[in-house]
Amino acid sequence: MIGKLSGVVDWKGEGQVLLDVRGVGYVVHVSDRTLAALPGPGEAAALYTDLLVREDLLQLFGFPTLLDREWHRLLMTVQGVGAKASMAILGVLGAEGVGRAIALGDARAIQAAPGIGPKIAQRVVLELKAKAPTVMAMAGRMGAPALADAPVEPAAAPAPRRTRAAPPPAPPPRAVHAADALSALVNLGYGQGEAAAAVAQAGDDLPEADTAGLIRAALKLLQPKG
């Protein structure tokens, strides 16, 4: 199975990128968010990939982080959510946004993706809510981008192109802080589900908060009411 591709961008189109990997071109389907973040033709890029196999079709889907790919695979386990719908959801919310929406039971956020109706959005929230905390806790380990900080040159090119990948962006700080805060709350004895919802709500209320700030805010939300 093809899990990752590193090469040079040959072409970018609507929902697709052609990646030249040592002279072999791979068409990779990507979300609008991922497409916008990829460099232009002639530049080095890398994507984690998931291969969809059907009787008459093979399709590669690309993701900037392992966390995005993990959410894609989970979304596709929901009845009525295919690869196109999953990519639409990730394209609108990103991996962090998907986790936050599911943890909070926010079906409207899921429904904001093109082609996602209220029934499907509600089903996504209900079926994945129990799994959201586990995936959210992986953010610190799985948020690293696929793009490597190393020169990449295509082999056997008619005219050698000297390209160098830009330094990879750091994993999203919010995702790392949220993962650390969730882990801390679970270690304090809170259930994963309630802890994930509290951290997600705290992140919405305090988008600039660090790990300590999220823990404090989440603890306030978890205090018994009355």
From TrEMBL:
One of its GO terms (molecular function) is DNA helicase activity. It is found in: Cytoplasm. Residues 171-226 are annotated as: Domain III. The keyword Hydrolase applies. Residues 178-223 form the Holliday junction DNA helicase RuvA C-terminal domain. Residues 153-175 are annotated as: Disordered. Keywords: Cytoplasm, DNA damage, DNA recombination, DNA repair, DNA-binding, Hydrolase. Gene3D superfamilies: 5' to 3' exonuclease, C-terminal subdomain (1.10.150.20), DNA helicase RuvA subunit, C-terminal domain (1.10.8.10), Nucleic acid-binding proteins (2.40.50.140). Homotetramer. Forms an RuvA(8)-RuvB(12)-Holliday junction (HJ) complex. HJ DNA is sandwiched between 2 RuvA tetramers; dsDNA enters through RuvA and exits via RuvB. An RuvB hexamer assembles on each DNA strand where it exits the tetramer. Each RuvB hexamer is contacted by two RuvA subunits (via domain III) on 2 adjacent RuvB subunits; this complex drives branch migration. In the full resolvosome a probable DNA-RuvA(4)-RuvB(12)-RuvC(2) complex forms which resolves the HJ. HAMAP family: DNA_HJ_migration_RuvA. Has three domains with a flexible linker between the domains II and III and assumes an 'L' shape. Domain III is highly mobile and contacts RuvB. Belongs to the RuvA family. The RuvA-RuvB-RuvC complex processes Holliday junction (HJ) DNA during genetic recombination and DNA repair, while the RuvA-RuvB complex plays an important role in the rescue of blocked DNA replication forks via replication fork reversal (RFR). RuvA specifically binds to HJ cruciform DNA, conferring on it an open structure. The RuvB hexamer acts as an ATP-dependent pump, pulling dsDNA into and through the RuvAB complex. HJ branch migration allows RuvC to scan DNA until it finds its consensus sequence, where it cleaves and resolves the cruciform DNA. This is Holliday junction branch migration complex subunit RuvA. It comes from Ruixingdingia sedimenti. The gene is ruvA.
